[in-house]
Protein: Pilus assembly protein PilZ
Organism: Methylobacterium longum
Amino acid sequence: MNDPRHSVILPALCWSRRRRDFYAITTDVSADGIRLRSSALLAPGEDLTCSIRHIGLLKARIDWTSGQDFVVSIQAGRAALAELARQFVTLARAQDLRAEPLRIHRRIVPRQKIVTVTLADGRAQAGHVLNISASGVALLIDPAPEIGTTFRVGRTAARVIRHFTDGLGAAFAEPFEPSAVHEAMIL
């Protein structure tokens, strides 16, 4: 299959003239078709009708199978396929299924939770530490500086790497030794 693939998870109910209803779930879409997963044993060349949540009823042909995965191409005209692709990409973006970054260091909740956050221009505001690791900190702060902004958490330099509701995740400019991360630490 050629990239780009757009990860999108949607439930589907599929069937054919020879096969009873079976459940499947989409995993991604690309120019090569819609990849689904099901416990049903399927074969390339089978014609299916699939009802996919938020998409509707589609006539499809199985192009490829491997274990529980299978790829279907949709039997429709060029305009219908373009609209279908737009719908899938919109749903994929809404789901935003990027993997969370792998956590390498143990997280702790410090006793001293209130810290001063100082931006590069000298403005300061209070932040509430949710947790700390050797490589970064999660803070409740409003408004949260933009992703990529460098700032100080107490005396420690950091850079915003992600946002979440009412807060941010930041990576320290110089990570701590894991043994230096404990409940009594003060940034």
Notes: The mean pLDDT is 90. Residues 78-95 form the longest helix (18 residues). The chain has one helix and 13 strands. The radius of gyration is 24 Å.
